[in-house]
Amino acid sequence: MAVGRRQNLDSISFHAVMGILSAAAVLLIIAPTAIVLIVSFTDGYSLKFPPPGYSLRWYVALADAWQIQDAAWNSLQAAVLSTLVSILFTVPAAFAVARSKSTVARQLESLFMSPLVLPALAFGLSALMYFSLVGIPLSLTTVVIGHVVVCAPYVFRTTLASLSQLDPSLLECSASLGASKIYTYRRVVLPLIGGGIMAGGFIAFMSSFDNVPVSLFLSDARNEMLPIRMWQTMENTLDVRVAAVSGVLILFSLALMLLMERFAGLSRRMR
Question: Could you tell me if 112 and 178 lie in one domain?
Fold first, then answer.
């Protein structure tokens, strides 16, 4: 009897401690975002929490912030292009690696995933040195190339995970019915793994759009990225419009997450 009570007490204590730690972790993650979102509605001229009043004036002011708009457009272009190129290259690579059980395939898998363990600042600097060495000027193209390297592993990982859950008998049934390999991949495989590709594309898009280290080294003055513009503005003027931009990005990211959860089941793909 005493042993049972002690076990129940230990279980309650464990769950209580884990609950407190989880709540603290969630608070630590959400609180900074909530504070930025609240400050973005201030009617004052400085970044102050709590705001002296609330207004949409700084969101309206973004309509005339052409430098921020240009930077946002550059970041959007880079993110879309990087995502499309990542999907174009990594999906066939995932097909090849998933079908092979050889040691070479496992080594290639590690190679494709290696950018995730490489410090982004180190890669950005080395990429800048390489482009300078071969005489390639900095432009939106160099930014896209750099983003593809650091974003493609996300698409590769989710596509590979989807392929690992694919029943091989489906391919055999398709082949036994006379379908070609191209037809099978187009009508059977791609619809089944489409959610995984979309989930990886979403993560790649957000990673590219919010990338600072690679963009810092590989972008030029004519192709400034939004995170870099926001960083410079915070350092120089503490413009309140930065908080408004952050609020737009928070809502934009939340909307994309809800769409991806609705159409691709993002949370299921990340398990």
Answer: yes
0.85 surpassed by pTM = no
- Cα dihedral angle (135, 137, 138, 140), rounded to 10 degrees? -120
| CA distance linking residue 91 with residue 98, whole number of Å | 10
Provide the residue range defining the domain that includes 172. Answer: 57-269
Looking at the structure, do residues 141 and 235 belong to the same domain, yes or no? yes
Q: Given the structure tokens 């959007």, which residue do they identify? A: 76
* Same-domain pairing of 15 and 147: no
Same domain for 93 and 200, yes or no, is yes
For the chain, the domain total comes to 2
| Phi/psi-derived region of residue 179, left when phi > 0, alpha when psi is between -120 and 50, beta in every other case | beta
**What percentage of residues in the chain have a pLDDT greater than 90?**
6
φ/ψ of residue 230, rounded to 5 = -65, -40
Q: Which own/partner pairs from 105-110 qualify as long-range (CB within 8 Å, at least 24 positions apart)?
A: 109/160
